[in-house]
Design a protein that fits this description.
single chain; Methylamine Dehydrogenase, Chain H; four-stranded antiparallel β-sheet; 15 strands; 44% strand; globular
């Protein structure tokens, strides 16, 4: 591949090219290569119907792309709502039209919006969507209290954001203390990391 501007990898690898199209290769058991098949490929195949892509992210069995117009599209597995659009492949994630950053994890995804809010969708177990519940969501939901985030990241079953005052807030699984708040209790809403 030439003219690659972004690459991501999980059980498959995907790349965005300068022309805004994407190519993926690897596991395709849930259609995550986006070529309309479920056949694995050891060479890059074009993601059908995707244009204007700026960033691509890979999950366990699904992939998402952030387009230049602020919309996010996902394709592949959707057992937990990780396509973010009520199970309609090829349609944008519901509730997002001004995304500026995107991160996916095993079976959930989060996007940062231009206004500083964070929206997540997919598997809600352990509170990893940050909306105060532990419920799967097939459309994006706002993370409680996130109004001035400047960057986001998703972990295996948790997510974090840095806010405008340079504090770190995390939510989701906390069995090993990965939320950094002096506890090992999961949190369905953001908790501030206690930096000494």
């Amino acid at each position: 591949l030439e003219e690659v501007i972004h690459v991501a990898s999980s059980h498959n690898t995907c790349a965005v090219l300068q022309d805004g199209t994407a190519r993926c290769m690897g596991d395709n058991s849930s259609g995550q290569l986006g070529d309309g098949t479920t056949t694995a490929s050891d060479v890059p195949v074009m993601v059908s119907g995707l244009s204007g892509a700026a960033v691509i992210e890979t999950g366990n069995d699904f992939n998402c792309a952030l387009r230049n117009d602020g919309f996010v599209l996902c394709w592949g597995g959707n057992a937990y709502g990780q396509l973010g659009n009520n199970h309609i492949a090829g349609e944008p994630v519901v509730g997002l039209d001004d995304a500026i950053a995107l991160h996916t994890e095993y079976v959930h995804a989060c996007a940062l919006t231009g206004s500083g809010s964070v929206r997540c969708w997919g598997h809600g177990g352990q509170g990893r969507l940050g909306d105060g519940a532990m419920t799967n969501r097939a459309t994006s939901v706002a993370v409680v209290g996130m109004t001035d985030a400047i960057t986001i990241v998703t972990g295996h079953q948790h997510s974090c954001a840095i806010t405008g005052n340079h504090a770190i807030w995390c939510w989701g699984l906390n069995a090993n203390g990965q939320l950094g708040n002096g506890s090992t209790v999961d949190s369905a809403v953001p908790v501030e990391v206690l930096i000494p």
